[in-house]
Amino acid sequence: MLMNSSFANVAPYGTLDRKTPKLLRQAAMLPSLDGRPSSHERHWKHSDTQACRLLDWPKVDETNHGVQVYPADVVKRRTVTWDGMAAEIVQATRREKMEFRFRAPVHLLAVWDQGTRSDGDTFVEGLPRSRLRDVTRKLTFVPAGHEYQEWHEPRVLTRVVYFYFDPARMPSHSEAGVEPAPLAPRLFFEDAALSDTALKLKRLIENAASDSGPYFEALGTVLAHELVRLNAGASSVEVPAKGGPAAWQQRMVTAYIEEHLAEPISLTTLARLVGQSRYHFCRAFRQSFGTPPHRYHGLRRIYRAKTLLRQSASSVTEIGSAVGFCETSSFTAAFRRATEQTPTAYRQSL
């Protein structure tokens, strides 16, 4: 549906220099979702003596697939992109008037992690304007092709997470189990399931690890399905599956994971083994095993590593590589998360 590639293109916070790729130097720009950055750059005129009015802005630049922020140097941005989806954290570095604008052939979901303004105005095409002061934990959805404009006089350092979806990669209505309906704009709404999934993705971006790809894929898939279900008027609270995979399906999936323990395994691959969509497979798997597929895979790697540490004279680096970790540091970190010990300390305790 959304992501066929692994976790990639992480743009960190911080000062950018001449060696920084053009994509990251243009702080207000995001790549199109096919991975190619937009080359169009534009500077907006701004008068400090006149309050910003959104209707006076120039025409929206439709070649830019990301939210434009003015002034660009008032925020730091951290971005992750996949094939069909992108996410970025936009963090204000000082309390200064900020202007946001967007219109692109991709869907936008804005999740305000922190936002209180003394003055401001928000507009989404097709909806009445809003001057809501406290937008913390509020969500805004802008369908592809719709215009979004906003300005803030912030009272706190603003932090917002933007998610961009390629409409062609969104889940089908039949797959999501809802009646077909075009995605409608929504302004400053609340939804616990969407917020929870979005903030999990935010934390994953902030603490990105080399083995985070499957978790990104799973969360991105769930986020897209929840958007489709919410739009159709269905409850966005996930309904527990009535039952997990059949016994033969469980055996097939677990055997495949054991045989390919040291390799990346996508949700698509596992779902195809049992003839289900990724979304429904992920729900059913969790119902049966109490954990998502990617986490089960990771725990089985650690279990195998513990066996090797007990029975083998191989070094920690060799064992980490044998269970699929490219770097000793990432193996040690994963092992510590699972066991509260480093591999070396675990071996010495035996």
Report the count of strand segments.
11
Oligomer state equals: single chain
Q: What is the helical fraction, as a range of percent?
A: 25-40%
Q: Total helix count?
A: 11
Gyration radius, in Å: 22 Å
Describe this structure in words.
With 350 residues, the protein is of the alpha+beta class. The chain is built from eleven helices and eleven strands. The protein has a seven-stranded antiparallel sheet with strand order 1-3-4-10-6-8-11, with helices on one face. Strands 2-5-9-7 form a four-stranded antiparallel sheet, with no helix packed on it. α3 runs antiparallel to α4. The N and C termini lie far apart (46 Å).
What keywords describe this structure?
alpha+beta, disordered N terminus, seven-stranded antiparallel sheet, four-stranded antiparallel sheet, 350 residues
Question: How is this structure best summarized?
Answer:
The protein is α+β, with helices and mostly antiparallel strands. The chain contains 11 helices and 11 strands. The chain starts with 7 loop residues before the first strand and ends with a helix.
Topology, please?
Layout: E1 8-11, H1 22-25, E2 68-70, E3 75-82, E4 85-92, E5 98-102, E6 107-114, E7 117-124, E8 139-142, E9 148-154, E10 159-165, H2 173-176, E11 186-189, H3 192-206, H4 213-231, H5 247-259, H6 267-273, H7 278-289, H8 293-311, H9 316-322, H10 328-339, H11 343-349
Helix pairs in contact: 3-4, 6-7
